[in-house]
Write a structure and sequence with these properties.
Layout (H helix, E strand, L loop, with lengths): L1 H16 L1 H30 L10 E7 L9 E2 H9 L4 E15 L5 E8 L3 H4 L6 E2 L14 E4 L1 H8 L9 E4 L2 E8 L12 E4 L12 E9 L5 H18 L1 H4 L3 E6 H6 L3 H32 L1 H9 L4 H37 L14 H27 L3 H5 L10 H37 L9 E7 L8 H16 L4 E7 L10 E6 L12 E7 L3 H5 L3 E4 L13 E5 H7 L3 H4 L3 E4 L7 E7 L14 E5 L7 E8 L7 H9 L8 E5 H8 L1 H35 L1 H9 L4 H30 L15 H26 L4 H7 L1
């Protein structure tokens, strides 16, 4: 212990004596350690921390696998009831259906998100309400389901944590719900809902073809996920045999709830975590170079200590102590860097990372930071310790030994570190280049409509006040007329949903003459009820046929319009499709005639493939909730107030939701990719700066080491350009070796970026070439500055100094 204290004191004196060196080393390491701690805090919060429920490893998400889709889809109500009754692996199984409701009765109408759930929902999560009670058996029956449990945050924000709210009423979509409980603090599933009410499942009103429910189950103690999957697969096969028309080929998939929630963001987070790991490695290489240079300057000190009896182990321990002190100082500063990094992350407001405001530096993150500091300290101390322990005492004590006596081993190790820095930087730069090019491709894609000067918003009509189709149609017809009369409005239309990332309504379809015997083998189309001016308002091009007219907007209309992809894929081309007939699943025996073909709209965002889409007049099948699109002659948001008044002149209790321009909607559709691109670019820029500092430092040190040699060469007649080439050539060799190693690493690693790219191959040759040339050019500049300094060495001064 006494020896350790002595080592610590000596290390502190050495580092304090070399304040400049210590500051640079600490800041360099703090940058690498800090961004790693920040990124680990995100990984910890999203991937490693268990869900905030009791026994979360027993919570399972259930979905339907369907032959028409390459991903799981929701569950039909009859299937859910059969799953629930025919299994013995779950303690509880709850259906969930979330929607938006209009809350009225206090101030302006407000749209709130709610979830209809099975009566056992809170038992499934093993949660007891903060106040009041949860649901009881029988409240999921018609006439008894108008009760609600509020989320804790909604109760706090909307009702001021008033304990007397229990037993009061809540008016949702014009119907009264009795508040029976307050959910416990911190409980939220789904995370966005404000309240829960019991779901009523009437199998007489829902078909097995109608997939709209989600389901969560709690496994019985001792039951594994694989055992549950095996039994539920048996249930799926049993239902397929019993109901071949709807369930043939349909299966059941079980996934742990935690896995389901993070499966889409895990690849991107792991890529970013690997990127900051590269930044840390580059920072360590820089500091290792500094320590090696420092060890070379301390040769005489080390030789003297050796001559006085210090053994090799004693010297190694001293160097390790110094590097550990350095790394722990960097860890302290790294906490500040991590905190600032998380503040920057929150400022970016990434939608792709759930609950970003709750991410913080907890004990696990601090433990990770300390572990990284220990590892870095040990690794950094080994290189100079090994170098110092191999010194020849007699040679090092000679007065004639100058700056050039660093030894070839130390020089070679520094060269290896520089090559590694360049290689790691190139890998990150290639990744960032691929992301930037992918993002540029996204921005260059035609979405299929003109997003400029478009105002969009959503209106939902409560069933209690608009129970019949003619009332719904009349409201939207009146609303369209009044909005069109507003100043600055050019055209207006309604649609069931709007691109991008609209709510999907889809189903199989049949082309006349090519009907499939099995509905599950039929192709799939998105279908969307629209008003007659929809395509004019969106400026979606007409390819063949005609647009809808007001004469088409009637309940028994048989006219449909399809998009270009659907016409080419299933009707033999755009012009061939016009006049042909098709039938939508669930549409009875009605055959609809294709009257027009329009350009493709990227319905699920710019970065998604084109889908077959079918449009029909909203009067044929109006939805209570419709999206408005208003094309304006002026700034879209400037007409929002007059549009709002136009709607309220018809019904003052209707709230507006999602009021935004189409440009804003499009921007949100690739916000996740933009966020990952920005972070990866930041990490790449840090890596590039650190690498350039590293190569500049090595070349500068090399010039200082070779001052006598350069002086001799110039005294013997060497020209300045020869000296410039000598020094610059060494730097270029290191750069080329590092670039070659980096290209090999990039070819191997960029494949992990595939899921984050659009329209760009992970091994895109152009990106690799441009980034390599850019890095080589910048590295050459970093080599040129010390090389230029070498040409100004005065031979007389250099020889006299030696």
């Amino acid at each position: 212990m006494i020896t350790l204290i002595q080592d610590l004191r000596y290390s502190a004196r050495v580092l304090a004596k070399n304040a400049g060196f210590t500051t640079v080393a600490v800041l360099t390491l703090a940058l690498g350690v800090g961004v790693n701690a920040a990124m680990f805090s995100i990984i910890n919060s999203t991937l490693l921390t268990p869900l905030p429920y009791k026994n979360p490893d027993r919570l399972v998400w259930l979905g339907t696998t369907h032959p028409r889709f390459n991903h799981p889809i929701p569950i039909s109500a009859p299937d859910f009831l059969d799953w629930k009754s025919q299994n013995n692996v779950f303690d509880y199984m709850s259906a969930i259906w979330s929607d938006e409701f209009t809350l009225t009765g206090k101030g302006e109408p407000e749209v709130v998100s709610g979830a209809s759930v099975s009566a056992n929902f809170f038992k499934l999560f093993d949660e007891n309400p903060e106040r009041g009670r949860g649901f009881v058996e029988g409240e999921d029956q018609p006439g008894r389901n108008h009760v609600a449990v509020l989320s804790y945050d909604f109760w706090k924000n909307r009702f001021g944590s008033n304990p007397n709210v229990i037993g009061s009423s809540l008016t949702l979509d014009g119907e009264s719900y009795t508040i029976v409980g307050i959910a416990p603090r911190g409980f939220a599933y789904p995370s966005w809902v404000k309240f829960w009410s019991p779901i009523v499942i009437d199998t007489h009103q829902h078909r097995r073809e109608d997939h709209y429910l989600r389901a969560i189950g709690r496994l019985k103690p001792g039951v594994t996920l694989s055992a549950a999957q095996a039994q539920m697969s048996t249930v799926g096969r049993r239902l397929a045999a019993a109901y071949p028309d709807s369930n043939q080929g349909v299966g059941i998939q079980l996934v742990l709830l935690k896995e389901r929630l993070v499966q889409f963001i895990r690849p991107a987070l792991l890529v970013l975590f690997g990127s900051v790991g590269f930044v840390l490695l580059i920072a360590c290489a820089n500091v290792a170079n500094l320590l090696l240079a420092k060890a070379t300057k301390r040769q005489k000190e080390i030789a003297l200590r050796t001559a006085l009896g210090a053994g090799r182990f004693r010297l190694i321990r001293q160097f390790l102590t110094e590097s550990l002190v350095l790394s722990f100082l960097a860890a302290g500063v790294g906490i500040l860097v991590a905190t600032w990094s998380l503040d920057l992350l929150r400022a970016l407001k990434p939608d792709s990372i759930p609950d970003v405001n709750s991410i913080h530096l907890d004990l696990r993150v601090l433990g990770f930071l300390l572990a990284i500091a220990c590892l870095v300290g040990i690794v950094l101390g080994l290189a100079p310790a090994w170098h110092a322990s191999r010194l020849h005492v007699n040679e090092s004590l000679k007065e004639s030994v100058g700056a050039g006596a660093g030894g070839t081993g130390g020089i070679q190790l520094r060269n290896v570190l520089v090559v590694a820095e360049i290689a790691l930087s190139l890998v990150l730069l290639v990744g960032a280049g691929l992301m930037v090019r992918s993002f540029a491709r996204l921005l260059g894609i035609d979405p299929g409509y003109d997003p400029k000067n478009l105002l969009t918003f959503q209106i939902s009509l409560p069933d209690s006040r608009y129970p019949k189709v003619p009332q719904v149609v009349a409201f939207y017809r009146d609303a369209l007329d009044r909005i069109k009369a507003c100043p600055g409005v050019e055209s207006v239309a309604v649609s069931n949903t709007l691109p991008p990332f609209g709510a999907e309504t889809d189903g199989p379809f049949f082309v006349e003459g090519h009907e499939s015997a099995n509905m599950n083998e039929a192709p799939d189309t998105i279908y969307d009820p629209i008003s007659s001016d929809y395509f004019r308002a969106m400026k979606t091009p007409l390819i063949a046929g005609r647009y809808f007219t007001e004469q088409d907007n009637k309940e028994n209309s048989e006219a449909v319009i399809i998009n270009q992809s659907m016409a080419r894929g299933y009707f033999g081309g755009e012009r061939a499709a016009v006049g042909k007939r098709m039938k939508l699943e669930g549409d009875g025996a009605k055959w609809r005639e294709v009257v027009g073909v329009v350009g493709d709209e990227r319905f699920f965002g710019w970065d998604n493939d084109l889908n077959a889409s079918t449009y029909f007049p909203y009067g044929a099948a109006p939805d209570s909730g419709m999206a408005f699109v208003v094309r304006t002659k002026i700034d879209p948001m400037s007409v929002s107030s007059s549009v709002r008044q136009a709607i309220w002149s018809i019904d003052k209790d209707l709230p507006f939701t999602e009021v935004q321009t189409m440009d804003q909607r499009l921007s949100q559709s690739f916000a996740g990719r933009r966020f990952y691109m920005i972070l990866l670019s930041i990490f790449s820029a840090l890596a590039l700066v650190l690498s350039l500092v590293g190569i500049y430092g090595v070349m500068s040190y090399s010039v200082a080491q070779r001052t006598r040699e350069i002086g001799v060469r110039m005294a013997l007649g060497a020209e300045r350009h020869h000296v410039l080439g000598l020094v610059l050539g060494r730097g270029l060799v290191l750069t080329l070796i590092g670039t070659a190693a980096g290209l090999a690493g990039a070819f191997a690693l960029t494949r992990f970026l595939a899921s984050l790219l659009y329209g760009v191959h992970p091994t895109d040759v152009a990106t690799f070439a441009v980034v390599s040339l850019l890095l080589a050019a910048i590295a050459t500049l970093a080599c040129y500055i010390p090389a230029r300094r070498a040409t100004k060495v005065d031979p007389l001064v250099a020889l006299r100094y030696e």
